[in-house]
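W.,

You were right to be curious about this one. When I first looked at the sequence I had no strong expectations either way, so I just let the prediction run and decided to look at it fresh. Below is the sequence, 197 residues in total, followed by the output.
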Amino acid sequence: MKQFKPETSALVLVDYQYGTLQLIRSISSDLALRNAVILAKTAMAFGMPVVVTTSQEDQIQGPLALALQKALPKAFKNRVKRVGIVNAWADPNFASAVKETGCKQLIMGGVTTDICLVFPSMSAVQEGFEVQAVLDASGSSYEIQEDISRRRMENAGVVLTTTNTIVAELVQNWSSPQGKELVKLLVSTAPMMQPFE
């Protein structure tokens, strides 16, 4: 797999809705959302294409998290509203929106690893895309679901990564304009460390 670059990459975010966020137990849902917002702000800093999708907003899943609505106003307005298709990639409107970005490298976050992320990431790889799945921007209800989903994705050719790693891969140089902006974002949103005694 080649290095992901801003000019060849698109950000894809799947189902970061209030209802689905409540399903996460293997990681803090606040942390998963925080990392999705960092991914969004990174994409905006580089002018990267962003595709957002939601499922059944009028049902228990609810609306897209407000933090992402604010971070991605254009992508939120143009989001692909699915009517219940589990694998987002199986929705022709979603797959078309991703393909229309013209990018073959996809940075993908899905609110739940075991449902929202695993299926579209594997489907995209099967269609010839390079995919990095951002694992600290998603979670599952139980550790076994998380573990099995990670194994399935990796076995299917999806590259597993984390928020800080993919941001650094895109930046390449912290002294660049985007690097200066994004390193501040990473530091300002990092969990506070306990002082040494």
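Here's what jumped out at me. The CA atoms of residues 32 and 137 lie 4 Å apart. And, maybe more interesting for your project: The longest strand covers residues 9-14.

Coffee later to discuss?

I.
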